[in-house]
Design brief:
This protein has no helices and 15 strands. By secondary structure, it is mainly β. The strands form three sheets. It has a five-stranded mixed β-sheet with strand order 1-4-9-6-7, with no helix packed on it. Strands 2-3-10-5-8 form a five-stranded antiparallel β-sheet, with no helix packed on it. The chain starts with a strand and ends with a strand.
Length: about 200
C-alpha cells in the first residue's frame, strides 16, 4: 500500500504559498485522476473554483461517494477544523467530467496539541462595506462580496493575516495582519471575492 504524504506534498495539491502562518494550496484533480493518500492534520478552508463529482477513500476503508445530488457551484466555501484534533488520511478520485479545483488555506498556527474546543477568542475585523461574514469558527473567518466593474471596496485592515480569493479564476493574494488595503475590480464584469482571515 502506498505510504501517505502530508497534504502539501501531494502532487495535485500544488503548494503555492508557504510560511509559518499558512500553506495555500491550488488543488487540481483532472477527470479520472486520483490523488495519492495524503494526511490532513491542520484546520483547512476551501474555496471551490472548478466542480466535478468526486469520491474519497479513508485509508483502510471503502470508497465513499459520489453523492446523488447536484454538484455544488463554483464559489462555495467550507472548512474542516476537526483535522486539528483528529487527523485524517485519505485519497480523492475525480469521477466526473470536469476539473475539480479548490483553493485551500491551511492554518499552521494552531500547534500540535491545540484543542479547538478551548481556543481563545481572536480579534474581530469589520468587513469592507458590502461584504458579509460567511464562516466564523475557531480557525477561520471569511467574508464574501461582489464588486461591480470599476468599483472598489472601502479601505480596511484585518487584525489577522488574510487571503483574498477571486472566485472566477482562483487568483489569490496573501496579506499580513494590519496591512491596510482596498479591493478593486478593474474588469468589465462583476467580481466575486472571498476574504479568509487565518485565526
Amino acid at each position: 500500500m502506498q505510504q501517505a504524504v502530508p497534504v502539501h506534498e501531494e502532487p495535485r495539491h500544488h503548494l503555492v504559498f508557504n510560511d509559518d502562518v499558512a500553506f495555500i494550496l491550488d488543488v487540481q484533480i483532472p477527470p479520472g485522476d486520483t490523488t495519492l493518500y495524503h494526511t490532513h492534520a491542520d484546520p483547512i478552508f476551501y474555496v471551490s473554483i472548478g466542480t466535478s463529482r468526486t469520491r474519497s477513500q479513508v485509508m483502510g476503508r471503502d470508497w465513499v461517494g459520489p453523492g446523488a445530488g447536484p454538484v455544488s457551484s463554483p464559489g462555495r466555501v467550507f472548512s474542516n477544523i476537526r483535522y486539528a484534533d483528529r487527523p485524517v488520511t485519505h485519497r480523492v478520485n475525480n469521477v466526473g467530467d470536469g476539473l475539480f479545483r479548490l483553493i485551500a488555506v491551511i492554518n499552521r498556527g494552531h500547534g500540535p496539541a491545540a484543542d479547538s474546543a478551548a481556543r481563545s477568542p481572536r480579534p474581530a475585523t469589520v468587513p469592507p462595506s458590502g461584504f458579509d461574514v460567511e464562516i466564523d469558527n475557531h480557525w477561520f473567518r471569511s467574508f464574501r462580496g461582489t464588486l461591480e466593474p470599476g468599483a472598489s471596496s472601502t479601505l480596511h485592515r484585518h487584525a489577522l493575516p488574510v487571503v483574498t480569493v477571486q472566485v472566477a479564476d482562483g487568483a489569490w493574494v496573501f496579506q499580513k495582519a494590519d496591512a491596510e488595503h482596498s479591493l478593486k475590480n478593474p474588469g468589465d464584469a462583476p467580481l466575486e471575492l472571498v476574504e479568509i482571515e487565518i485565526r
